[in-house]
Inverse folding.
């Protein structure tokens, strides 16, 4: 039994506590997929009696200390009576406490959509008909035939078929409606639902299934009005924070793909239930569903083994759009069909197709750069004449993983940062408060918040501010003369760190403080260099398009939507296009899903568009590594930034402090 959730599971002796938690559905965090590396799955075995479940744990109910725990060297130390859930094995009846730090907290999901600017042409439409009163001897034909005839007469559409599951509902519906019914017709061909009497609202659900968050929108199919929006954590996070960890889980655990599929389908089903409840509707009112997601999410939802996507040549089972039913995906929406947008390549999925549909580079005469920033950054470049797409392995650093004080975008996370250029003193804003840390009421306003880390947008801003303040060199080194300028820079082993939040006079920077370390800077450098190298590679494949020729740069996704465009340029994440051409466009993938929900023509458009997209595989491109090395510097090691120089005051080149090492460039390329 797991405390405090009260969830329980019956498992075989020898099962790890982490696997038992997954089986029970308990929120026990793990970012490494159970390899004993992250330390996030720490639990506390309870040896007391738990009356409700009549469980009387003993010390023999859990395995002894393991070699995995003895060898563990992760950032989160194992303290007190805590154990690693991935290493400790169940040996009998056991009560386990999951500390708050080990729980998968609900993330602040900030995904909204703008799906305006196109003609609404839904796949499913409602038609109301009044049936004639039948008398003995009348030659009216079957009830289905009458309905089909009346729809043709009144609406000019003759559905040729009726779904078999609808046939038993026809007579009861006609009786409830006093010989009147409203039928749902899909593509003018198939009757998919019947309601007694007059029904004037047809609704559908558009869902963006991200690797971290799932965002859904309940939409009026006739007007395009968004009736309700909901966002939840992707429950697959308990199998690993990033996609490759989840694929590894499947590889190491026979049947793991079924667990992943069940987890996400359960979440989709619950989300749809919440959406219709919020709008005062029922599940039977949902007539259509569209889904977008990266290739692994796409395949897992369909019950397809994702392991081929975890290794070269990254082969998709299908790249075509998929039409199916909600029932086939274990979603309780009996009247709903489901449409999954097409994928583009092994690492460029239906979410990118949705973003293309929303932002319309294929409809534009000017060159557009569209970037959806996540664990894998999807990049689309071009215009109506030619579109290219690629995926760059940025890793999870932008989302807080691999950062010493990184955390998800939950209440209390630092999301905005400014550093005074003279005093080098920082001020921050956190999620859950509108005040900056130097405002008099900040302490009182944030008293109930646990300010314990930095989320993605805050990480980008603190790196940019440290560079602009002269605390970080162009090559990404925290300057060793920093302690002479401010007590917030302190020696941290053989490198230096910056104390972002907490008392400035703390000697070692560890007590009640949030610090930015040299390793944090390197993690962001690696992530942004991978992304920028992918962008530069597409520019080269497009014929050497330079930054000035890019008409617009659009940053998409929940993370990209909250990046300040100026800091994206300061770090060199995007090319030196004028900052007024760089914008955050929000959840473009979700907006594309809404478009596909509301328009048959939009579905046809994206299916035709993706067939002509040129796919660039960064893993096999010789130039990728050279561009990656060039992109490591802030903003870039070799590419000048004349536009950025007019938009902010860049730090003057500073000499290395005496005795500091100088990184020398050689003619040899480093290994990937």
């Amino acid at each position: 039994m797991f405390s405090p959730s009260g969830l329980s599971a019956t498992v075989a002796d020898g099962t790890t506590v982490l696997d038992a938690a997954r089986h029970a559905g308990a929120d026990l965090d793990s970012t490494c997929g159970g390899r004993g590396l992250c330390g996030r799955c720490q639990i506390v075995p309870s040896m007391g009696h738990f009356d409700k479940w009549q469980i009387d744990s003993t010390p023999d109910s859990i395995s002894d200390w393991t070699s995995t725990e003895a060898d563990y060297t992760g950032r989160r130390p194992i303290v007190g009576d805590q154990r690693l859930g991935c290493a400790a094995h169940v040996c009998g009846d056991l009560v386990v406490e999951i500390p708050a730090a080990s729980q998968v907290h609900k993330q602040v999901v900030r995904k909204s959509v703008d799906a305006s600017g196109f003609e609404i042409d839904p796949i499913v439409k409602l038609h109301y008909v009044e049936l004639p009163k039948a008398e003995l001897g009348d030659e009216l034909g079957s009830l289905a035939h009458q309905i089909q005839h009346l729809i043709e007469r009144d609406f000019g559409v003759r559905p040729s078929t009726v779904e078999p599951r609808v046939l038993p509902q026809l007579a009861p519906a006609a009786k409830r409606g006093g010989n009147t019914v409203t039928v749902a017709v899909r593509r003018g061909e198939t009757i998919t639902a019947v309601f007694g009497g007059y029904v004037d609202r047809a609704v559908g659900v558009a869902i963006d299934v991200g690797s971290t968050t799932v965002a859904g929108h309940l939409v009026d199919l006739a007007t395009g009005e968004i009736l309700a929006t909901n966002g939840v954590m992707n429950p697959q996070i308990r199998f690993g924070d990033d996609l490759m960890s989840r694929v590894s889980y499947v590889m190491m655990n026979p049947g793991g793909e079924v667990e992943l599929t069940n987890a996400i389908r359960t979440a989709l089903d619950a989300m749809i239930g919440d959406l219709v409840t919020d709008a005062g509707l029922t599940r039977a009112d949902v007539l259509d569903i569209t889904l977008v997601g990266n290739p692994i999410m796409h395949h897992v939802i369909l019950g397809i083994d994702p392991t081929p996507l975890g290794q070269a040549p990254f082969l998709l089972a299908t790249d075509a759009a998929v039409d199916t039913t909600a029932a086939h995906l274990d979603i309780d929406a009996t009247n709903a069909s489901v449409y999954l947008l097409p994928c583009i390549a092994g690492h460029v999925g239906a979410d990118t197709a949705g973003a293309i549909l929303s932002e319309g580079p294929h409809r534009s005469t000017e060159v557009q750069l569209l970037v959806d920033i996540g664990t894998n950054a999807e990049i689309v470049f071009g215009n109506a004449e030619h579109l290219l797409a690629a995926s760059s392995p940025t890793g999870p650093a932008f989302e807080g993983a691999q950062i010493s004080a990184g955390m998800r975008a939950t209440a209390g996370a630092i999301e905005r940062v400014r550093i005074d250029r003279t005093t080098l003193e920082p001020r921050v804003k956190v999620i859950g408060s509108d005040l900056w840390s130097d405002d008099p009421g900040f302490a009182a306003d944030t008293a109930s918040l646990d300010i314990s880390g930095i989320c993605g947008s805050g990480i980008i801003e603190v790196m940019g501010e440290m560079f602009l303040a002269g605390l970080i060199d162009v090559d990404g080194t925290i300057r060793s003369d920093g302690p002479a300028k401010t007590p917030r820079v302190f020696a941290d082993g053989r490198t230096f760190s910056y104390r972002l939040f907490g008392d400035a006079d703390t000697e070692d920077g560890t007590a009640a403080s949030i610090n930015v370390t040299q390793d944090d800077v390197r993690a962001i450098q690696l992530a942004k260099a991978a992304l920028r190298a992918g962008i530069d590679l597409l520019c080269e494949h497009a014929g050497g398009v330079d930054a000035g020729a890019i008409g617009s740069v659009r940053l998409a996704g929940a993370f990209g939507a909250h990046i300040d465009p100026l800091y994206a340029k300061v770090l060199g994440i995007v090319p030196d296009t004028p900052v007024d051409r760089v914008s955050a466009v929000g959840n473009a993938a979700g907006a594309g899903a809404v478009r596909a929900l509301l328009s048959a023509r939009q579905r046809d458009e994206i299916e035709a568009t993706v067939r002509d997209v040129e796919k660039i595989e960064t893993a096999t491109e010789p130039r990728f590594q050279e561009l990656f090395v060039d992109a490591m510097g802030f903003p870039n090691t070799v590419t000048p930034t004349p536009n950025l120089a007019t938009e902010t005051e860049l730090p003057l080149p500073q000499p290395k402090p005496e005795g500091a090492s100088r990184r020398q460039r050689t003619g040899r390329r480093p290994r990937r």
